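Next up, sample data.

:::
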Amino acid sequence: MRAGRVFAYGAAAGLLSDLLLGDPRRGHPVAVFGRAAGAVEQLLWRDHRGRGALHTAVCAGGAVALGAVAARAVRPCPAASVALTGAATWAVVGGTSLAREASAIGRALEAGDVAGARARLPHLCGRDPQALDADGIARAVVESVAENTSDAVVGALVWGAVAGVPGLLGFRAVNTLDAMVGHKSPRYRRYGWASARLDDVAGWPGARLTAALATAAGGDPRGAVRAWRADAGRHPSPNAGPVEASFAGALGVRLGGTLSYGGRVEHRPVLNGAAGRAVRVADIDRAVRLSRRVSWLALGVCAGARIVGARLRKGRTA
C-alpha cells in the first residue's frame, strides 16, 4: 500500500475514533508526554534561552524520533502502518473533547448556571473565569473553539500529511510544550522562548488552512475573508489571528477585546468589529458545528495532498 493511502486511511480511522471515543480518561499519551517534559524541565531549568532551547530540542526531538522508529518498524506491513497512523492520529487530535467542553459550558449558560460555566471554563482555556459574565464566557468559548480547531486538529493533520507519524507526534509535542512553558510569565519568559517560537512556525500552515476552510464552510464566506484580511494581522498571535478572524467573519460575530489571564488584563484588537455583533450563548453551538466541518474538510485536504504528493514523487523516480 502506498504511503499516501496509509496516511489517508489511518488519519480517517484516527479522526473517527476521536469522534466516537473522545480522549482516554486515564493514561492519555499527551499527558504522559507532559509529565516527561516536566521531568526534563526540572533537570534543565535555568532562566536562560539556551537551556529552554535544549529542553525543546530534547522533548520535541524525542517525540519525532519515537514516531520515526515506530513507523520504520511497521513499514513492511501496510495494515500495521495504517493502525499506527490511526492510533497516532487519535492520540494527538482533540476535536471531540473540545466540542464536549464547549457544549457543556453552553448548556450551563443556557440554564442560567453562570457559576457552573465559570467552573468549567478552565478546562477549555486559561482565562480568569471570575472576571467574565455570561456573554464574556460565551466569547471566550467561541475564541477557544476557533483557535483549538487549528491547534488540536488541523495542525496535526497538516504535519501528518507532511511527515506521517513523526509529524503527528512532533506537532503535538511542540504544541504541548508551548502550553507548558511558552507563556510570558517571569519563570518562562526566557526559558520558554524557543518553545513559543517553534510553535509559531509549526502552527503557521495549519492556521492558514483552518482559516481558509472556515471561510469556505461558514455561513458568510465574504464576511470571513473581509475579517481575515482586515483584522488577522492586528492579533498578537500570528496564528490565532487568521483563525479567530475568519471564524468571527464566518459566524457574523465580534471576537477579541479585553480579557484577563492569570490576573493580567490584556486589551486585544476587536476582530470583525465593523460587521459583527456581540457573541451570544447560541453561538457556541454554531462555532462547534463549524469546527467539526473544518476538521473533516481538513482531513480530506490533507489526505488528498498526501496521496497526490506520493504519486508525484513516484512519477519523478520512475
Q: What stands out?
A: The CA atoms of residues 63 and 169 lie 6 Å apart. The chain has a mean pLDDT of 93.
